[in-house]
Amino acid sequence: MAGPELIAIGSYFDWDIAAMQAAYTVHAVDSPEALTALPEARRRAVRAIAFKGHAPLGAAQMDLLPGLGMIANYGVGFDAIDVAAARARGIRVSNTPNVLNDDVADLAVAMLLAQSRRLIEGSDWVRSGAWPKQGELPLNRKASGRRAGIVGLGRIGREIADRLAAFKMEIHYHSRTPKDTPAGWTYHADPVSLARAVDDLFVALVGGAETTGYVSREVIEALGPDGVIVNISRGSTIDEAALLDALESGAIRGAGLDVFHNEPNIDPRFLKLDNVVLQPHQGSGTIETRKAMGELQRANLAAFFAEEALVTPVT
Ligand code: 8YV
Fold it and tell me: What is the pTM for the complete model shown?
């Protein structure tokens, strides 16, 4: 290994580690807390972090690395990084937007279809031998042609909406300000009015303090008993206790969830529900996209070390 000192935090694929090792002297650690165990001389030599995962990376960890100038996040969401603390220390931060939009939007639609058409139960029906014994799968629900609401019409929200429009769904959305959209899409200035107007609600907000609990009990209840909630953003964006109450009581019909509070140790109440499609935070989890995310992370690192403009800067 040669080249500038880099700490790789998180669990990387071999192809990422090999590519990082080709350019840097890499020290791999599992989590931000593990930085304390590195020898002081090594900590002092480090100029950049390649960061992956969702464990908090804050001021205390940054202060362990006095030469740190850059945190390159693997992921579009950077809510685990204390960006204000980084900014205060002159540390640059980058993320990996856009390359994952298609996959995350695909999973959002897949979860709606799986929930409505009961794909998981249908598969079990075949595998368990229930089909020849019990006949047809109990009827499920139509997905096309319903009214869809997108909370957060950013890059991923827009990709979800474009897909749902092809499913003949009426598109409504809520974001801070109205966006330039195709004719016929309806803007709602608040999330409760959005939830009241639609059948299915897709949460595509950025994570972080500003959006914690944004999909509140009131929003969930406004969706009503035929409503389905799909969340591909962060568990924190939804009042999870309210969501569980609504799923248990039938205040909404169902949900498709890729993200949760306290991942991966999710609330066991979810496991008892048969109206929820549960996924292990795998929105961007294809070989193609994860390779692209690694490449973009490294392109940002290379720009930092070359003293050029970052490719996809956060700060
Ligand atoms: C994760 C994500 O980065 O991009 C994001 O914001 O949540 C994911 O793509 C991925 O799970 C690696 O931690």
Answer: 0.97
